[in-house]
Amino acid sequence: VKQTAGRYLEQRNHLGYTYCDSMIVDDKYLTSRDVEFAGFDAVQLQGLWKIPHKTVGGPFICTAFYDDITDRIFIIDAAVFAPGREKLPWLQRTQTVARNFSLRPFDHFE
């Protein structure tokens, strides 16, 4: 099942709105591209998130893919909230953690 950037964006916004105090993506600054991630064809979304009723937000990079073996969609999200600080170093740190995602956690022992 080929998923689109728009579909992943809808899902990310739904999760953020439901579980992260109404967090949504600011569409004005959104980019997307096809990437390879953890051995899957994926879509990477990058831009700014916001919580409108609190006037807060920050940068994010989100990588999403569909695993047809488990019939699940995975959304690996790296979002930063760091008022008064340089955002890039924090975003790079969260991306380092996100890039280590694996559906097969014990592959490195083989």
Any key phrases for this structure?
110 residues, 4-stranded antiparallel beta sheet, 2 helices, alpha+beta
Task: Describe, in plain words, how this protein is organized in 3D.
The structure is a single chain. By secondary structure, the protein is of the alpha+beta class. It has 2 helices and 4 strands; from the N terminus they run H-E-E-E-E-H. A 4-stranded antiparallel β-sheet has the order 1-2-3-4. Strand 3 and strand 4 (72-79) form a beta hairpin. It is globular.
Describe this structure in a few short sentences:
It is built from 2 helices and 4 strands. By secondary structure, the protein is of the alpha+beta class.
Q: What is the spatial order of strands in the main beta sheet?
A: 1-2-3-4
Which regions are unreliable across 5 or more consecutive residues at pLDDT < 50? none
User: Oligomerization state of this entry?
Assistant: single chain
How much helix is in the residues?
Answer: 10-25%
Task: Give the number of helices.
Answer: 2
Beta-strand proportion: 35-45%
Q: For the residues shown, what is the average pLDDT?
A: 89
> Distance between the terminal alpha carbons, to the nearest Å?
30 Å
Shape: globular
- What value does the Rg take, in angstroms? 15 Å
| Class computed from helices, strands and strand pairing | alpha+beta
The count of β-strands is 4
Element-by-element helix/strand order? HEEEEH
Largest sheet entry: 4 strands, antiparallel
